[in-house]
Specification:
Number of strands: 30
Distance between the termini: 43 Å
Helix content: 25-40%
Structural class: alpha/beta
Radius of gyration: 25 Å
Strand content: 15-25%
């Protein structure tokens, strides 16, 4: 693609005006241009118009200001998707304060880590979650605004954190005087949120997101939206997949349908009832789950027009054809702004696309030396547009320095690049498997295992081998109503995978451990290792042998002694 052709074609990589990317300015623009238009539709069918959205934002902002919140302060929001969370987010940013959304699955030491690191004095939280504060350290937190049912701490537990906190009802946020507060004149480079990483490989880090970064992701992914489009957001708003979809819709003049979570069973019902033409994204196993829904005659009868999905697989192709939508893919993480984007309806299997306009990407070795095409390297990036990549991790200067060494942001993701400039995700550095001198992508193993009809979900990861390096292990959960026999799975995989990629260990679970953002917690599975309920093909007498090249090259599962090439 020539440099004169924008990629993607709807994205402009130049610095936007503040009124186009700062949240408070966007809310005012929408209320001024079309005050009576529905801006947000909630899961229960209730709606906020553009004018109502601005009014409730200003009321809550006035209430937060009365509690001492000022520009630059951090405000914790511990809520599921819904009106309370939107109100907390919008009001916080309206004052120039920084939202710190907390994963609703957090508890214990990880919850204490997030709260203490933020230095926040005020939390807006849901009544069902607040009891988890009772037995942890809560840092500088002094005040909790309780949403949902009124929550009362156990009066007999005088030493708990909850007893020491001042507790207010959500009515405080509704009772503020909107005319008493003005929007803080935030700039594109100011901090908008601190978003914590998913914690799939270890403790979460607080990623500083600027207004410009969130806006840029929204424009790359959703810059094609128009006023009559509606964005279904079912990714959690403590994840950039949810917040950037809302920013994209606000900036483009589209409306939003906000749901609490992704549901395989209700996904298409939600699309139809909300009239959604776009969605916040189909990520990871969401595609696999939807692909295994039983076909229905009316599958293609839906308003969905375009989807951002990742990764691009055979399941993606089938799903797009079955439901009649266009799709494109890419690569993103909490710290960056979609540096890689594919062409619309790409058929390049597993591709993350190519570098978009305004970014430079390289694949480098452990010493930051670029590697040739076809070799595995870590993706490092830098942007022509300042502040469109995170400035760092809040309160973690050492982690920031490691990520930003040598003038490039280091993603920690291993990829390859082909001669056409397409990038292909291999694995997270911590998830890569090395067996008998071969580098194995857990993603590729999962893609093949996931095609087995009886598999509902899968995670592939490394466990130590008695011979050194790693052995390949998979944890699988059965598809609904299916039984899962490890031997049958191996028989299915044998003609489809390289001999060194075939799993030695298979563990069958009812469900895989996941974060609330629907990512498998591989670090938990890795830590558990080879458990008593794990099936071992070696112990079962099934060994892999690669035949000499003088005969047809195929893998063979057989009973007998292990071959040195296994």
């Amino acid at each position: 693609m020539s440099e004169s052709t924008p990629h993607p074609p709807w994205f402009n990589p130049e610095m936007p005006q503040r009124e186009h990317c700062v949240l408070s300015a966007l809310l005012h623009r929408r209320a001024e241009r079309a005050p009576g238009d529905t801006l947000i539709r909630f899961e229960d069918g209730s709606c906020w118009t553009a004018a109502e959205t601005l009014d409730t934002t200003r009321r809550a902002a006035a209430a937060l200001r009365n509690q001492g919140i000022r520009a630059g302060d951090r405000v914790l929001a511990w809520l599921p998707n819904g009106p309370s969370l939107l109100r907390a987010w919008f009001a916080t940013n309206y004052l120039g304060a920084i939202l710190v959304p907390i994963n609703t699955g957090y508890r214990g030491k990880l919850l204490a880590h997030v709260i203490s690191l933020s230095g926040a004095r005020l939390m807006i939280g849901h009544a069902d979650l607040l009891p988890r504060l009772g037995d942890i350290r809560t840092g500088e937190l002094t005040t909790v605004i309780c949403c949902g049912d009124t929550f009362e701490a156990d009066a007999g537990d005088d030493g708990s954190s909850l007893q020491r906190l001042r507790r207010l009802d959500e009515g405080e946020l509704l009772a503020g005087e909107p005319g008493s507060v003005a929007a803080w004149p935030a700039q594109p480079w100011d901090s908008m949120m601190i978003v914590y990483t998913s914690g799939t490989t270890g403790p979460s880090k607080g990623v500083i997101n600027t207004y410009l970064q969130q806006y840029t992701v929204g424009q790359v992914c959703f810059g094609y939206l128009e006023r009559d489009d509606r964005m279904l957001v079912n990714l959690p708003l403590f994840h950039v997949g949810g917040t950037t979809a809302i920013m994209g819709a606000l900036a483009q003049g589209a409306s939003i349908a906000l749901y609490e979570r992704f549901s395989t069973a209700r996904f298409w019902e939600q699309i139809r009832e909300s009239g959604a033409t776009a969605i916040s994204g189909l990520l990871g196993t969401m595609v696999a789950f939807l692909d295994k829904n039983p076909p229905q005659p009316a599958d293609a009868d839906n308003p969905l027009k375009r989807v951002v999905l990742s990764p691009v697989t055979r399941q993606s192709f089938r799903l797009a054809e079955r439901y009649g939508f266009d799709y494109f893919s890419g690569f993103n993480m909490t710290e960056v702004s979609v540096p890689l984007v594919s062409e619309l309806n790409t058929r390049v299997h597993s591709s993350c696309g190519r570098p978009r306009s305004g970014v430079e990407c390289q694949l480098v070795d452990a010493n930051d030396i670029p590697v040739p095409d076809g070799e595995i390297g870590e993706l490092v990036i830098r942007s022509d547009l300042p502040w469109s990549i995170t400035p760092g991790y809040f309160g973690m200067p050492e982690a920031t320095a490691r990520a930003w060494r040598n003038g490039w942001f280091h993603t920690g993701d291993l990829m390859t690049r082909d001669a056409d400039g397409n990038y292909f995700f291999v694995d997270r550095e911590k998830d890569a498997i090395r067996r008998r001198g071969e580098n194995i992508s857990s993603i590729e193993v999962e893609a093949e295992v996931g095609e087995f009809p009886a598999v509902g979900e899968v995670a592939a990861y490394a466990v130590p081998s008695e011979h050194g390096e790693d052995e390949v292990m998979v944890a699988v959960a059965p598809a609904e109503g299916a039984g899962l026999d490890p031997r049958a799975l191996l028989d299915y995989l044998q003609p489809r995978m390289a001999h060194f990629m075939l799993p030695r260990y298979v563990r069958v679970l009812d469900t895989l451990p996941r974060t609330p953002t629907n990512k498998v917690q591989k670090h938990q599975l890795r830590d558990e290792g080879v458990t008593d309920d794990t099936w071992d093909r070696d112990a079962a007498g099934l060994h892999i042998r690669r035949e000499p090249l003088s005969t047809p090259t195929k893998n063979q599962l057989h009973r007998g002694d292990a071959d040195e090439l296994r």
